[in-house]
Amino acid sequence: MKYATSLLREVIQKRRVIWDLAKADFKKRFVGSYFGIVWMFVQPIVTVLIYWLIFGPIGFKSAPPVPNASYIEWLIPGIAPWFFFSEALNCGTGCLQEYNYLVKKVVFNIRILPVVKVLSAVFVHCFFVVIILVIYTFMGYPPDWYALQLIYYSFCTFMLILGLTYLTSSVAVFFRDLMQMINIALQVGVWATPIMWSFSDLGLTGIVTAILKLNPVFYIVQGYRDSLIDKVGFWEHPALTLYFWVFTIVVFFLGTKLFKKLQVHFADVSFDVKRGETVGIIGTNGSGKSTILKIITGVLNPTAGEVTVDGRISALLELGAGFNPEYSGVENVYLNGTMMGFTKEEIDGRLQDILDFADIGDFVYQPVKSYSSGMFVRLAFAVAINIDPEILIVDEALSVGDVFFQAKCYRKFEAQSL
């Protein structure tokens, strides 16, 4: 309960960072494609067109389950939330693997990553909903105030997916087969949910109907149809509404609890570092030098005790830590600055100092995956040292730099300590 509450507070506090990362995640899907973001508009339009051709006047001409509406008009409001649900759950389950460079190598609170992935899926869903409203308007069913319930039911879908994502993403780190199991479950779920069929079509009644309605996605699918076709308010289904939210809240708390429990931990250790001190950690390979630095920066949590940090931390834990290999050097500067809580204007003010210190020329406009190890460390250190950190943590990354750059870094250390 305490963890889930603190998570909600953090989401509110870091809403700008989450929003920026969600937009970046959405745009990343279309990196390298010729038409780019245009595919976002093509996908829902083509989906609607395919179902219209198959089940409309040209295709099977399926009988509508409700009067005064064609089958395609009945089908589309059911298929839209399912696409949102399946896409967000699939992407969210693998979020920790996809963002492993944030999970393992940078100071970043990883518990907001599922929120970022689910929010990224919201963008396509919103456009899909707009397409549906346009189609209904052209067919003579303009949206009325009941259509405002789509906001409520979209929020219901968001919260259900978020709880499931916390559950599945934490397990998927240790059990990779979960992704395949979820894909199979979604294939079964699309037919187990009355999306393309109705209870009346199959003659289902009694206990079978009651069991199928326990599927929380049924509440959402039916809600979309109630909003656009049947004109029924969600308050007219009090039992289903209560069941859905109890189920969703339980899943959310279980998911966040498991997410917290399965994070990597470290054994207890105790030492103090005072303001102005410089401390080096020496040990053999595997002794835990990098691990203790990750604990100090918040990347990992200790199994016992606590770490108290007072001041802004900048960390260079590994070569390329926190860098997206597909982004250019400049784009990665802004990405790192955003994760550190800086606004675009603040990053703009520091950008020239960072580029001057890195001194890698026009390579800053090339994808960092093409960088040499020396260029990597130059840019990474330039970012870390030029955000005015109160606490600077550097692992062995500087060992790959040339002797002149190392000397330059040491002079910067001395200047910062004055």
Describe, in plain words, how this protein is organized in 3D.
The chain is mainly α. The protein contains 18 helices and 4 strands. The strands form 2 sheets. It has a two-stranded parallel ribbon. Residues about 265-270 have low confidence and may be disordered.
Uncertain segments are 265-269
- What amount of the residues lies in strands? under 5%
Which secondary-structure class do the elements indicate? mainly alpha
Order of adjacent strands in the largest pleated sheet: 1-2
Helix segment tally: 18
**Overall 3D form:** elongated
Question: What is the rounded Rg?
Answer: 26 Å
Counted beta strands: 4
Q: Give the SSE string.
A: HHHHHHHHHHHHHEHEEHHHEH
Q: Describe the main β-sheet briefly.
A: 2 strands, parallel
Q: What is the average per-residue confidence, as pLDDT, rounded to a whole number?
A: 79
What is the end-to-end distance?
45 Å
User: Helicity, in percent?
Assistant: 55-70%
Structural features:
mainly alpha; two-stranded parallel sheet
What is the compact description of this entry?
This protein has 418 residues and is mainly alpha-helical.
